[in-house]
Design brief:
Blueprint: E1 8-13, E2 26-27, E3 32-33, E4 36-43, E5 56-70, H1 76-84, E6 85-92, E7 95-102, E8 116-121, E9 127-143, E10 149-156, E11 158-162, E12 180-184, E13 187-188, E14 192-200, E15 203-206, E16 217-220, E17 225-233, H2 238-245, E18 249-261, E19 264-280, E20 291-298, E21 309-314
Protein backbone atom coordinates (compact mmCIF):
# COMPACT_ATOMS: atom_id res chain seq x y z
CA UNK A 1 0.00 0.00 0.00
CA UNK A 2 1.37 3.38 -1.03
CA UNK A 3 1.66 6.28 1.43
CA UNK A 4 1.86 9.93 0.51
CA UNK A 5 4.28 10.53 3.35
CA UNK A 6 6.71 8.12 1.69
CA UNK A 7 6.64 9.98 -1.63
CA UNK A 8 8.78 12.85 -2.83
CA UNK A 9 9.38 15.44 -5.53
CA UNK A 10 12.77 15.92 -7.14
CA UNK A 11 12.99 18.94 -9.45
CA UNK A 12 15.76 19.47 -11.98
CA UNK A 13 16.33 22.22 -14.53
CA UNK A 14 16.99 20.67 -17.94
CA UNK A 15 19.93 21.62 -20.11
CA UNK A 16 17.79 21.42 -23.25
CA UNK A 17 14.16 20.96 -24.26
CA UNK A 18 13.45 17.40 -25.32
CA UNK A 19 15.99 15.68 -23.05
CA UNK A 20 15.13 14.71 -19.49
CA UNK A 21 17.71 15.58 -16.86
CA UNK A 22 17.92 14.11 -13.37
CA UNK A 23 21.40 15.11 -12.18
CA UNK A 24 21.75 17.33 -9.08
CA UNK A 25 18.03 17.50 -8.26
CA UNK A 26 16.36 19.74 -5.71
CA UNK A 27 14.26 17.62 -3.36
CA UNK A 28 11.43 20.04 -2.67
CA UNK A 29 9.21 19.19 0.32
CA UNK A 30 5.60 19.35 -0.84
CA UNK A 31 2.15 19.32 0.71
CA UNK A 32 0.44 17.73 -2.29
CA UNK A 33 0.54 17.44 -6.06
CA UNK A 34 -1.93 16.96 -8.88
CA UNK A 35 0.34 16.30 -11.85
CA UNK A 36 -0.96 13.82 -14.39
CA UNK A 37 -0.76 12.68 -17.98
CA UNK A 38 -3.82 12.91 -20.21
CA UNK A 39 -4.21 10.92 -23.42
CA UNK A 40 -6.94 12.62 -25.40
CA UNK A 41 -9.27 10.37 -27.34
CA UNK A 42 -9.74 10.92 -31.06
CA UNK A 43 -13.10 9.61 -32.33
CA UNK A 44 -13.79 8.99 -36.01
CA UNK A 45 -16.64 10.82 -37.73
CA UNK A 46 -17.02 8.20 -40.45
CA UNK A 47 -20.40 6.51 -40.95
CA UNK A 48 -20.30 2.71 -40.78
CA UNK A 49 -23.93 1.81 -41.38
CA UNK A 50 -24.61 1.05 -37.71
CA UNK A 51 -25.96 2.75 -34.60
CA UNK A 52 -22.85 1.95 -32.55
CA UNK A 53 -20.27 4.70 -32.28
CA UNK A 54 -17.24 4.69 -34.62
CA UNK A 55 -13.71 3.60 -33.58
CA UNK A 56 -11.46 5.46 -31.17
CA UNK A 57 -7.84 6.47 -31.80
CA UNK A 58 -5.05 7.71 -29.56
CA UNK A 59 -4.98 11.50 -29.66
CA UNK A 60 -2.63 14.15 -28.33
CA UNK A 61 -0.80 13.71 -25.04
CA UNK A 62 -0.58 16.45 -22.44
CA UNK A 63 0.70 16.70 -18.89
CA UNK A 64 -0.32 19.32 -16.40
CA UNK A 65 -1.23 20.05 -12.83
CA UNK A 66 -0.08 21.76 -9.67
CA UNK A 67 2.50 21.21 -6.96
CA UNK A 68 1.88 22.79 -3.54
CA UNK A 69 4.48 23.47 -0.86
CA UNK A 70 4.89 25.33 2.39
CA UNK A 71 7.58 27.68 1.19
CA UNK A 72 11.07 26.64 2.32
CA UNK A 73 13.59 29.53 2.14
CA UNK A 74 15.98 27.48 0.01
CA UNK A 75 13.65 25.50 -2.24
CA UNK A 76 11.29 28.37 -3.00
CA UNK A 77 14.00 29.59 -5.35
CA UNK A 78 13.32 26.66 -7.68
CA UNK A 79 9.68 27.75 -8.07
CA UNK A 80 10.66 31.39 -8.58
CA UNK A 81 13.25 30.56 -11.24
CA UNK A 82 10.92 28.15 -12.99
CA UNK A 83 8.10 30.70 -13.22
CA UNK A 84 9.87 34.02 -13.66
CA UNK A 85 12.75 32.68 -15.71
CA UNK A 86 15.51 35.12 -14.77
CA UNK A 87 17.71 34.91 -11.70
CA UNK A 88 20.84 36.78 -10.60
CA UNK A 89 22.58 35.76 -7.33
CA UNK A 90 25.04 37.94 -5.42
CA UNK A 91 27.09 37.00 -2.37
CA UNK A 92 26.52 39.33 0.58
CA UNK A 93 28.53 38.26 3.60
CA UNK A 94 27.78 34.60 4.18
CA UNK A 95 24.41 34.67 2.38
CA UNK A 96 23.30 34.75 -1.23
CA UNK A 97 20.74 37.26 -2.43
CA UNK A 98 18.82 36.07 -5.50
CA UNK A 99 16.86 38.51 -7.64
CA UNK A 100 14.14 36.95 -9.78
CA UNK A 101 12.55 38.91 -12.61
CA UNK A 102 10.03 37.95 -15.30
CA UNK A 103 11.72 36.78 -18.48
CA UNK A 104 12.06 39.33 -21.25
CA UNK A 105 12.81 36.69 -23.91
CA UNK A 106 11.93 33.03 -24.39
CA UNK A 107 14.34 30.43 -23.01
CA UNK A 108 14.80 28.94 -26.49
CA UNK A 109 12.83 28.20 -29.66
CA UNK A 110 10.86 25.43 -27.95
CA UNK A 111 10.41 26.59 -24.35
CA UNK A 112 9.21 29.95 -23.06
CA UNK A 113 10.80 29.47 -19.62
CA UNK A 114 13.36 26.94 -18.31
CA UNK A 115 12.13 23.36 -18.87
CA UNK A 116 11.95 21.04 -15.88
CA UNK A 117 12.20 17.36 -15.13
CA UNK A 118 9.95 16.39 -12.24
CA UNK A 119 10.54 13.09 -10.47
CA UNK A 120 7.41 12.23 -8.52
CA UNK A 121 7.70 9.11 -6.44
CA UNK A 122 4.30 7.88 -5.26
CA UNK A 123 5.58 5.00 -3.12
CA UNK A 124 4.59 2.33 -5.62
CA UNK A 125 7.28 0.89 -7.88
CA UNK A 126 9.13 3.21 -10.20
CA UNK A 127 9.11 6.97 -9.84
CA UNK A 128 7.18 8.96 -12.45
CA UNK A 129 9.32 11.28 -14.59
CA UNK A 130 7.61 14.23 -16.22
CA UNK A 131 9.99 16.19 -18.42
CA UNK A 132 9.79 19.14 -20.79
CA UNK A 133 7.57 20.65 -18.10
CA UNK A 134 7.27 24.43 -17.88
CA UNK A 135 5.96 26.64 -15.08
CA UNK A 136 2.73 28.09 -16.40
CA UNK A 137 2.12 30.03 -13.20
CA UNK A 138 3.07 30.57 -9.58
CA UNK A 139 1.11 31.80 -6.60
CA UNK A 140 2.33 32.63 -3.11
CA UNK A 141 -0.29 32.73 -0.35
CA UNK A 142 -0.08 33.88 3.25
CA UNK A 143 -2.94 34.07 5.76
CA UNK A 144 -3.10 34.81 9.46
CA UNK A 145 -2.17 31.78 11.54
CA UNK A 146 -0.66 29.94 8.55
CA UNK A 147 2.64 29.21 6.83
CA UNK A 148 3.60 30.87 3.55
CA UNK A 149 2.36 28.58 0.80
CA UNK A 150 3.48 28.25 -2.80
CA UNK A 151 1.66 26.64 -5.73
CA UNK A 152 3.46 25.95 -8.99
CA UNK A 153 1.33 25.22 -12.04
CA UNK A 154 3.16 23.09 -14.61
CA UNK A 155 2.45 22.27 -18.24
CA UNK A 156 4.17 19.98 -20.76
CA UNK A 157 5.50 17.53 -21.64
CA UNK A 158 6.75 13.97 -21.84
CA UNK A 159 6.68 10.97 -19.55
CA UNK A 160 9.07 8.25 -18.44
CA UNK A 161 9.86 6.21 -15.33
CA UNK A 162 12.94 5.35 -13.28
CA UNK A 163 14.00 3.89 -9.98
CA UNK A 164 13.26 6.48 -7.28
CA UNK A 165 16.14 8.54 -5.95
CA UNK A 166 16.87 8.77 -2.24
CA UNK A 167 15.66 12.19 -1.12
CA UNK A 168 17.84 14.51 0.96
CA UNK A 169 16.36 17.72 2.34
CA UNK A 170 18.27 20.79 3.44
CA UNK A 171 17.60 22.31 6.87
CA UNK A 172 15.33 25.31 7.11
CA UNK A 173 11.82 26.28 8.16
CA UNK A 174 9.00 27.85 6.15
CA UNK A 175 7.98 31.42 6.88
CA UNK A 176 5.11 31.96 9.31
CA UNK A 177 2.44 34.64 8.99
CA UNK A 178 3.82 36.69 11.89
CA UNK A 179 7.11 37.50 10.10
CA UNK A 180 5.28 39.11 7.17
CA UNK A 181 4.92 42.84 6.61
CA UNK A 182 3.39 44.87 3.81
CA UNK A 183 3.42 48.46 2.62
CA UNK A 184 1.51 50.37 -0.05
CA UNK A 185 2.99 53.58 -1.41
CA UNK A 186 5.48 53.44 1.45
CA UNK A 187 2.78 53.28 4.12
CA UNK A 188 2.79 50.18 6.30
CA UNK A 189 -0.49 48.23 6.15
CA UNK A 190 -0.91 46.11 9.27
CA UNK A 191 -4.54 45.16 8.60
CA UNK A 192 -4.01 42.58 5.83
CA UNK A 193 -5.34 39.17 6.89
CA UNK A 194 -4.68 37.25 3.71
CA UNK A 195 -2.62 37.96 0.58
CA UNK A 196 -2.06 35.95 -2.59
CA UNK A 197 0.44 37.14 -5.19
CA UNK A 198 0.10 35.38 -8.53
CA UNK A 199 2.20 35.28 -11.69
CA UNK A 200 0.82 33.80 -14.92
CA UNK A 201 3.03 33.06 -17.93
CA UNK A 202 -0.01 32.24 -20.10
CA UNK A 203 1.56 29.17 -21.69
CA UNK A 204 0.10 26.54 -23.96
CA UNK A 205 1.40 23.45 -25.73
CA UNK A 206 1.77 23.62 -29.50
CA UNK A 207 1.60 20.43 -31.54
CA UNK A 208 3.05 19.75 -34.98
CA UNK A 209 2.60 17.13 -37.70
CA UNK A 210 6.00 15.74 -36.77
CA UNK A 211 7.40 15.09 -33.33
CA UNK A 212 4.92 12.61 -31.92
CA UNK A 213 1.86 13.08 -29.77
CA UNK A 214 3.43 15.32 -27.10
CA UNK A 215 3.66 19.10 -27.57
CA UNK A 216 6.46 20.07 -29.92
CA UNK A 217 6.97 23.27 -27.96
CA UNK A 218 5.44 25.10 -25.01
CA UNK A 219 5.16 28.81 -25.68
CA UNK A 220 3.17 31.89 -24.76
CA UNK A 221 -0.39 32.64 -25.86
CA UNK A 222 -0.69 35.97 -24.07
CA UNK A 223 1.18 38.54 -21.96
CA UNK A 224 2.57 37.82 -18.50
CA UNK A 225 0.14 38.75 -15.75
CA UNK A 226 0.69 39.72 -12.12
CA UNK A 227 -2.28 39.54 -9.77
CA UNK A 228 -2.87 40.21 -6.08
CA UNK A 229 -5.91 39.31 -4.06
CA UNK A 230 -6.63 39.27 -0.37
CA UNK A 231 -8.57 40.65 2.56
CA UNK A 232 -7.97 43.35 5.15
CA UNK A 233 -9.69 44.70 8.26
CA UNK A 234 -11.40 47.98 7.53
CA UNK A 235 -9.92 50.77 9.70
CA UNK A 236 -10.13 53.74 7.35
CA UNK A 237 -10.83 54.55 3.69
CA UNK A 238 -7.23 54.85 2.51
CA UNK A 239 -7.18 51.75 0.26
CA UNK A 240 -10.75 52.36 -0.89
CA UNK A 241 -9.75 55.83 -2.04
CA UNK A 242 -6.84 54.34 -3.98
CA UNK A 243 -9.37 52.12 -5.75
CA UNK A 244 -11.62 55.09 -6.55
CA UNK A 245 -8.64 57.06 -7.85
CA UNK A 246 -7.46 54.03 -9.85
CA UNK A 247 -4.02 54.81 -8.48
CA UNK A 248 -0.98 52.72 -9.40
CA UNK A 249 1.41 52.63 -6.46
CA UNK A 250 4.06 50.30 -5.06
CA UNK A 251 3.16 47.25 -2.98
CA UNK A 252 5.99 45.55 -1.07
CA UNK A 253 5.45 42.33 0.87
CA UNK A 254 8.38 41.07 2.98
CA UNK A 255 9.11 37.99 5.06
CA UNK A 256 11.93 37.86 7.62
CA UNK A 257 12.81 34.25 8.45
CA UNK A 258 15.16 32.37 10.73
CA UNK A 259 18.88 33.23 11.11
CA UNK A 260 21.17 31.71 8.49
CA UNK A 261 24.53 32.90 9.86
CA UNK A 262 26.64 36.01 9.67
CA UNK A 263 23.94 38.07 11.33
CA UNK A 264 21.57 37.52 8.39
CA UNK A 265 18.14 35.95 8.10
CA UNK A 266 16.39 34.02 5.41
CA UNK A 267 14.25 36.62 3.68
CA UNK A 268 11.78 37.05 0.85
CA UNK A 269 10.60 40.34 -0.66
CA UNK A 270 7.92 40.71 -3.33
CA UNK A 271 8.01 44.10 -5.04
CA UNK A 272 5.17 45.23 -7.31
CA UNK A 273 6.01 48.80 -8.36
CA UNK A 274 2.53 49.63 -9.72
CA UNK A 275 -0.45 47.95 -8.09
CA UNK A 276 -3.88 48.88 -9.45
CA UNK A 277 -6.98 47.79 -7.57
CA UNK A 278 -9.60 46.10 -9.76
CA UNK A 279 -12.23 45.26 -7.11
CA UNK A 280 -12.58 46.61 -3.59
CA UNK A 281 -16.02 46.98 -2.03
CA UNK A 282 -16.49 47.47 1.74
CA UNK A 283 -19.77 45.87 2.86
CA UNK A 284 -21.64 45.17 6.09
CA UNK A 285 -21.65 41.39 6.53
CA UNK A 286 -22.61 40.98 10.16
CA UNK A 287 -22.00 42.41 13.61
CA UNK A 288 -18.27 41.79 13.82
CA UNK A 289 -15.17 43.49 12.47
CA UNK A 290 -15.50 44.42 8.79
CA UNK A 291 -13.20 42.39 6.55
CA UNK A 292 -12.88 43.65 2.97
CA UNK A 293 -11.83 41.51 0.03
CA UNK A 294 -10.05 42.90 -3.02
CA UNK A 295 -8.40 41.98 -6.29
CA UNK A 296 -5.65 43.95 -8.00
CA UNK A 297 -3.25 43.80 -10.93
CA UNK A 298 0.47 44.40 -11.06
CA UNK A 299 1.14 46.81 -13.92
CA UNK A 300 4.47 46.91 -15.76
CA UNK A 301 6.58 49.84 -14.59
CA UNK A 302 8.86 51.22 -17.29
CA UNK A 303 11.12 52.97 -14.79
CA UNK A 304 11.76 49.76 -12.83
CA UNK A 305 11.67 47.51 -15.88
CA UNK A 306 9.35 44.92 -14.32
CA UNK A 307 5.87 44.26 -12.96
CA UNK A 308 7.10 41.92 -10.23
CA UNK A 309 10.47 41.37 -8.58
CA UNK A 310 11.16 38.67 -6.03
CA UNK A 311 14.27 38.85 -3.86
CA UNK A 312 15.26 35.75 -1.89
CA UNK A 313 18.05 35.59 0.71
CA UNK A 314 19.39 32.19 1.73
CA UNK A 315 22.53 30.02 1.69
CA UNK A 316 22.00 28.49 -1.77
CA UNK A 317 24.72 29.63 -4.25
CA UNK A 318 22.51 29.30 -7.30
CA UNK A 319 19.67 27.59 -9.12
Amino acid sequence: MAYGQAGHLALTFQESFGTLFTDSPFFVPIVSEEVGKTINQLVENNLYGRFAEPPYHEGTHEIGGEVRTEAHPLYLGTFLKAALGQTAPTLQGSAYVHEFLPATADWDAFAAVPPLTLELHRDAGSAFLYYDMLAAGLSLEIAHGQLLGGTLEVLGGRFSRKAPASPAFAPGRPWTWDVASASYDGLGIAEFRQLTVGFDNQLTGYYALSGGKAPQRVKREGPQRVSVEGTFLLQDQFLFQQYLDQAEKRLVVSFAGEPIGGGQNAALTLDIPRLRFAELAPQLAGPGQLEVSFTANGVFDAASGYALRATLTNTQPGY
